[in-house]
Design brief:
Blueprint: H1 6-32, H2 35-42, H3 46-52, H4 56-70, H5 83-95, H6 110-115, H7 118-142, H8 157-176, H9 183-193, E1 212-217, E2 224-225, E3 230-231, E4 238-244, H10 251-256, E5 261-266, H11 270-291, E6 300-304, H12 309-313, E7 324-330, E8 333-339, H13 343-348
Parallel strand pairs: 4-5, 5-6
Antiparallel strand pairs: 1-8, 2-3, 4-7, 7-8
Helix pairs in contact: 1-2, 1-4, 4-11, 5-8, 5-9, 5-11, 7-8, 7-11, 8-9
């Protein structure tokens, strides 16, 4: 038998740690789980666990993200063709994952861990805003909101946020009070929300940074598009938005300008926050793919750039949770770039330095 390379051995050990941690968290819950016990289950040392994950919470997020990404979809989903039907289908997919007994403890500690640390709450808030935007874009494709003459473009983001608030609340009550939540009523409530008028509009940012012309080949590494659970299509024309986990709401600026968008998620703490981002996106799209037909899926690719290689290909060499930079790709070349708040809109709208 051929000996494993160092990279293959590291990947094998990482898989062992994830499997052992999943069993430990499922049996004991996050708070009672021990790193030493996880190492023993994996037949590895404590140091081997920490060489793959910076801490227990990072490992917990990684376990849940891995499960969410591997979860099978419904074999014959009843996808909605209207906003009401889509919200009902989305809610049904959501409540199907609710804990039904005290034994369902694997994911019960996610929100308590987020609440316990402001460093986690800030990126989680932005991830929820991203989920709401993506749900709204899908609903708007099914039924574009009416916009009065002369008014800013209408949208369904506030509706999407209200739906996600309802569903996340149901998840927390189901965990805290097993048997209290009635899934059928939660689905009905989400369907009824489709009839509410939120008077929701979007206006472009008042100020944007200058757009600089660029002329170099666009050659990003091969990465997974988390929205579709397949390799991203790096060659298509559009906007590549490199966004720290405190700036994810800026995706809307590029989308509303009509661009095809690849959102590249970056963070100053990829060991802990990248799994959290993967978890939030995977759980959301696991439901969305069952709720609306593929033709209504948002025209947004989402790449979690833990290594920084995708960002570097876009010319962003140093990243943090506050990063906001965008490039425009045309014909396999990067042709324009902007950085700072408003960069996504500036590049997507095709603004130039001399137009300011």
């Amino acid at each position: 038998m051929a000996r494993l390379t160092r990279a293959e051995m590291q990947e094998c050990n990482r898989a062992k740690v994830l499997a052992a941690a999943r069993d430990e968290f499922a049996e004991r819950g996050f708070r009672e789980a021990k790193i030493d016990a996880i190492a023993e289950r994996a037949e590895l040392t404590r140091g081997a666990v920490y060489s793959n994950f910076p801490g227990k919470r990072a490992l917990y997020f990684a376990v849940l993200a891995d499960l969410a990404e591997r979860a099978p979809g419904a074999p014959h989903p009843e996808r909605g063709r209207s906003v009401r039907d889509a919200l009902g289908a989305f809610a049904r997919a959501w409540v199907a994952r609710l804990p039904v007994s005290e034994r369902d403890r694997l994911g019960r500690d996610v929100i308590p861990e987020i609440l316990a640390d402001e460093r986690v709450r800030r990126p989680f808030t932005q991830l929820m805003k991203l989920d709401a935007l993506l749900l709204a874009l899908a609903l708007e494709h099914l039924e574009p909101p009416e916009t009065p003459a002369g008014a800013p473009p209408g949208r369904l983001v506030r509706l999407a946020r209200t739906v996600l608030t309802t569903l996340h609340g149901a998840s927390q009550l189901a965990a805290a009070a097993p048997g209290f939540v009635e899934p059928f009523d939660v689905v009905s409530a989400c369907e009824q929300l489709a009839g509410l008028a939120f008077n929701d509009f979007w206006a472009p940012p008042a100020a944007v940074p200058p757009v600089q012309p660029v002329g170099r080949p666009w050659a990003p590494p091969r990465e997974i598009d988390m929205a579709r659970a397949e390799f991203a299509r790096p060659g298509h024309d559009g906007v590549v938005a490199v966004l720290g986990l405190h700036r994810l709401a800026a995706v809307e600026q590029a989308v509303r300008a009509g661009a095809e968008v690849t959102a590249v998620l970056v963070t100053s703490d990829p060991g802990e926050f990248a799994p959290l981002a993967r978890l939030a996106v995977a759980e959301f799209f696991g439901c969305l793919r069952q709720a609306v037909p593929p033709s209504a899926w948002p025209r947004v690719q989402i790449v979690c750039d833990s290594s920084g290689a995708f960002s570097a290909a876009a010319g962003v060499l140093a990243v943090s949770d506050e990063t906001e930079a965008a490039v425009r790709v045309e014909g396999g070349h990067v042709v324009a770039r902007a950085e700072g708040q408003g960069a996504c809109h500036a590049v997507a709208a095709g603004l130039h330095t001399n137009s300011r």
